[in-house]
Amino acid sequence: MQLGRLIAFTLALGAPAFAVENKKPSKSGHAADEAHIKEELGVNQFTTPSIETLLAALGNLRPGSYEAVSRDLPAQNATDRARLALSTGAVIADGFLAVIAEKQSRIEPIGRVLLRQAKGLGVGDHVTRHSRSILEKAGSKDWEGVRSELIGTQRDVEQGMLALKDEEIAHLVSLGGWWRGLEIAASIVNEHYTPERAALLLQPSVLDYFADRISTLNPSFKKTKLWSALDTNLRETRRLVIKDDHSALTKDEVKKLHALAKSTNDAIATPEE
């Protein structure tokens, strides 16, 4: 499987066009109640996009180098919940990178870190349910099987978010995954630049959504350097990619976008002083 397919996933992390599945609404009262809870908590196509839909959105971009976009995993959990949620989203993106690139050796360490972080957030039970099967299927290179288990994992994590009734965690996990995905995507687009590929990086609705969400976060978190970095870099990213003429990013602008995403992910990975 080509690494270029990853771009479809990373761009779709926040893109409603890829993330929404058209399912007929259930007539049951339980389904209606669950839908209402999701609406109340902000669990939607931005916060918990369907893995099944994302994996089906395969791109036609040239493959990139896995080594060029991989990174060291967090050695320990962040001590504050907001940073931990952002980091968890980023590790989820790393997981998809490993699966889509079929890097068998990376599955187990990513799985261990993700499970540790999920336990820290209080949704460990929802992650462990599929973890053993994911490792077994990755060990036998059954990537379709891994895909199926990831879909099941995503559904269980969404249920965990609903049980926690924690809107901020839903937004921050998603935002962390989006920033890491954007860093990966911008790197690959830059490696094999064309205006058509660069145009895929334009996501005005996603930028507006996340900018609005972080403005509503806990006041104590908004006093931190990390929140300031998130807010500033989202605004800088929007100024860079949203153009009046709707033109694609230049190669230099793609480099700047990658630098913004990387600096944000570095800030997430660096404990507050």
General description of the model:
- It is built from 14 helices and no strands.
- The protein has 273 residues and is mainly α.
- It has one domain.
- Helix 1 runs antiparallel to helix 6 and helix 13 runs antiparallel to helix 14.
- The N and C termini lie far apart (42 Å).
Report the radius of gyration as a whole number of Å: 18 Å
Uncertain regions spanning at least 5 consecutive residues: 1-9, 11-28, 50-62
Approximate strand percentage: under 5%
Assembly type of the chains comes to single chain
* Structural class estimated from helices and strands: mainly alpha
Kindly report how far apart the N and C termini lie: 42 Å
How many β-strands, per DSSP?
A: 0
Q: Percent helix among the residues?
A: 55-70%
Question: Which series of helices and strands comes N to C?
Answer: HHHHHHHHHHHHHH
Tell me the number of helical segments per DSSP (H or I, 4 or more residues long). 14
In total, how many domains does the architecture comprise? 1
- Main sheet makeup: none
Which overall shape is indicated by the principal axes computed on the Cα atoms?
globular
Mean pLDDT: 76
Could you give the topology of this structure?
Layout: H1 5-12, H2 16-19, H3 29-41, H4 51-56, H5 66-69, H6 81-100, H7 104-121, H8 124-139, H9 143-164, H10 167-191, H11 195-199, H12 204-214, H13 225-241, H14 251-269
Helix pairs in contact: 1-6, 1-10, 6-7, 6-10, 7-8, 8-9, 10-14, 12-13, 13-14
